[in-house]
Amino acid sequence: MPGLADWLRGWRTPLAKQQSAVAAGPLDFSEPGFVQNPYPYFARLRDAEPLHRSASGAWVFSRRSDILAALADPRLGNAPAPYAIIGTRNRDRYPCAEVAGNTLPFLDGPLHTRLRRLFAQAWTTQLRENPPDIETHARRLAAQCRAKGRFDLLREFATPLAVAVIGDVLGVPDTMRPALHADARFFFYLFTHLPSHEVRAQTDAAVLRLREGFGRLLDDPEAAPQGVIAGLRGLEANELSPEQVLDNLALLWADGIGNVDSGIASAFAVLLQHPKQWRALCAEPTLSANAAAECLRFESPGQFIGRVVLEDLDWHGQALKRGQVVLLVLASANHDQHQHPDAQRFDIHGSGPSALSFGRGHHSCVGAALARSEVEVALRVAAEELPQLRLCVRTLEWQLRIGHRWLNALPVAVD
């Protein structure tokens, strides 16, 4: 196995050489080499073991064809695993488990259908009648960053852009955004490993504060006179509890920040690591839509989604038992050369495979189109306003956050 320094240079190493250096064995999502560059591991699994039992005992699906089939398979459910901290057995014990049991990603059947229809209707109506002015926000932030010369593109451009846009869409007042943003980061622990009792307690406190904050906005028309929040008032009449409405508002808020700002930052990271591609975008900013799609495919902020086996079944000759966890690695599907010969090549001009970064089907991300638009506008504005943008570090640092691919920072400069 190569040393950490070798993996830190992994993005410069040809994929074939990286893949050959990845040892076989149970996949460990917390292993430093995997955190820094998971794609050689996924490539090995696609080639040698498309159905893999990870170190945690979960079944890992890495091929696009299997993942698409699994996303449509009713024998795989969305409720948390029975033994998970956020599982149903802990609903009365931990607020994070109660919130998980109320939110769309963990629901199936009629409740999921009803909730998604009502939220999607309010969301779509808001975007159609009062779309957010992404470009104005992006140009304001780009001007501020250009004046600094050196800045962290994640925290000083991508994050404030994501907060401003989702705040406008939902109708969150400016004064409440900082506090709700601080709690939003903990919401994502519902979708990943809770590393300690301390983090679980912090997550419990954060989701309750989110519920309280959105409760105030939902109850007070003067505090949130417009946006999705205004469109959701009275949903309890549709046989929904107040907590179900509030917790899914918190989901839209958290997802509209966490995966969006990470997606924007990762898009810039990929482009700046491919200078010819960045220069091509700067020369022709109208390529921004294609560039955004390619960046989200090539470096997905959400790496995988979980499912639970609802009944014993056979897959690739392996017996999957009821209650076992299945991980659908969307990021691997996006790189699957078995489905598209150029899937492992980054090219903003190309017509590569469509990305699965936001899922597919009934459980796909409600805000996917808005997220793509934010990445697209961010890239176009930067290509026009900050064409001399460059990385200030040789090695990017990624968070140890299982299931997500989020940068710690993105130090850049404008020459």
Entry summary:
The chain is an alpha+beta fold and 415 residues long. It contains 17 helices and ten strands.
Structure explained in plain terms:
The protein is α+β, with helices and mostly antiparallel strands and 415 residues long. The protein has a domain at 78-302 and 357-414: Cytochrome p450, CATH 1.10.630.10. It is 50% helix and 8% strand. The protein has 17 helices and ten strands. A five-stranded mixed sheet has the order 1-2-8-5-3, with helices on one face. Strand 1 and strand 2 form a beta hairpin. The chain is globular and about 55 Å long. The two termini are 39 Å apart.
Sequence-ordered SSE layout with sheet pairings:
Elements: H1 4-8, H2 15-21, H3 32-36, H4 39-48, E1 51-53, E2 59-61, H5 64-71, E3 76-77, H6 95-100, H7 109-129, H8 134-148, E4 150-152, H9 153-170, H10 177-187, H11 197-219, H12 228-232, H13 242-273, H14 275-283, H15 288-298, E5 305-309, E6 313-315, E7 318-320, E8 325-328, H16 330-333, H17 368-385, E9 389-391, E10 411-414
Parallel strand pairs: 2-8
Antiparallel strand pairs: 1-2, 3-5, 4-10, 5-8, 6-7, 9-10
Short key terms for the protein model shown above:
17 helices, single chain, Cytochrome p450, 415 residues, 5-stranded mixed beta sheet, disordered N terminus, 3-stranded antiparallel beta sheet, alpha+beta
Q: What proportion of the residues is helical, as a percent range?
A: 40-55%
Following the backbone from N to C, one meets helices and strands in this order, namely: HHHHEEHEHHHEHHHHHHHEEEEHHEE
The radius of gyration over CA amounts to: 21 Å
The number of helices is: 17
What name does the CATH topology of the domain at 78-302 and 357-414 carry?
Cytochrome p450
Which architecture name of the domain at 78-302 and 357-414 does CATH use? Answer: Orthogonal Bundle
Total strands: 10
Structural class: alpha+beta
Quaternary state of this entry equals single chain
Main sheet: strands, sense, barrel: 5 strands, mixed
Quote the beta fraction.
5-15%
Using the alpha-carbon principal axes, give the shape. Answer: globular
Assigned CATH superfamily of the domain at 78-302 and 357-414 = Cytochrome P450
Distance between the termini: 39 Å
Q: Low-confidence runs (pLDDT<50, min 5 residues)?
A: 1-21
The side-by-side strand order for the widest beta sheet comes to 1-2-8-5-3
CATH C-level category of the domain at 78-302 and 357-414: Mainly Alpha
Mean pLDDT: 90
